[in-house]
Amino acid sequence: MVMHDLSRLVTPIRAALQRGELDSLPDTLQQAALDNGTRQRLGAIHPDFMGGEYLPRLRHEEIEIARIRIRSTTSDVNCLYARPVGRRIAYRVVDEYGGDTLDERRTGTSMRPLTMGQMIEFFLGAWDLYTCLDCNFEDDVKGMQRFFTGESEFYPCFDATLRQRVCERFTPQAVGGKRATREESEESD
Predict the structure, then answer these.
(1) Residues whose CB falls within 8 Å of the CB of residue 69, separated by 6 or more in sequence, listed in order
(2) 110 forms bridges with which residues in the sheet?
(3) Cα(71)–Cα(117) distance, rounded to whole angstroms?
(4) Pairing outcome for strands 63-70 and 77-85
(5) Cα–chain-centroid distance for residue 125?
(6) Could you give the CA distance from residue 179 to residue 189 in angstroms, rounded to a whole number?
(7) DSSP bridge partners of 149
(8) Gap between the Cα atoms of 52 and 43, Å rounded
């Protein structure tokens, strides 16, 4: 790839970020899904630009409810999508790997919007953040906290609640000095 091509992408991104005017970015960079050429050029600049680019497209009337972004090499993203289906709300958890990182229970429905606790249980039941953190950081809770971000326009306390749960699960307990099991963490909610 020619350096000139990269600077044509980086320069407007950097300038828009500095001005706080992301709406001024070229239309190509504001689309819900980038074309393959743009995606490859951005990935060549830095793998962080790849995060979320391989998520499944939203279905008709579907919206993103929440996402968890991890600071892996390619900034992997997992999302919870929702859409109306008759009188119910259908949910699905998606990843960027065609479902390969998800457990079997990745879809569900409800009559009413999920509470934050229900949403987190459903999300983490489909994609196990705890195992991801444990495999990467073992007993380093501070490292775990830096490794992920929870985002949601519908659940403003999502990130803070995830962080609290991670601390509760991985911080050694006063009695016995052991970490809480997944079941013990869920019971404390």
Answers:
(1) 51, 52, 75, 76, 77, 148, 149, 151
(2) 89
(3) 24
(4) antiparallel
(5) 14
(6) 16
(7) 69
(8) 12
Q: What are phi and psi of 143, to 5 degrees?
A: -65, -40
| Tens of pLDDT, residue by residue, the chain (189 residues) | 444 454 555 556 666 656 666 566 655 555 555 566 765 666 555 555 555 667 888 899 999 999 999 988 778 899 999 999 999 999 999 998 899 999 989 999 999 999 999 999 999 999 999 999 999 998 899 999 999 999 999 999 999 999 999 999 998 753 344 555 555 555 555
d(CA 43, CA 24): 21
User: Are the C-beta atoms of 79 and 94 separated by less than 8 Å?
Assistant: yes
Which residue is it, tokens 């951005």? 42
Please choose, from the candidates 56, 28, 32, the residue with its C-alpha nearest in 3D space to the C-alpha of residue 41.
Answer: 28
The amino acid at residue 135 is C
Q: Token pair for residue 41?
A: 């050029």
What is the rounded CA–CA span in Å between residue 166 and residue 45? 32
Alpha-carbon dihedral 84, 63, 122, 140, rounded to 10 degrees: 180
- Compute the residue count for the chain: 189
Phi and psi for 89 in degrees, rounded to 5? -115, 125
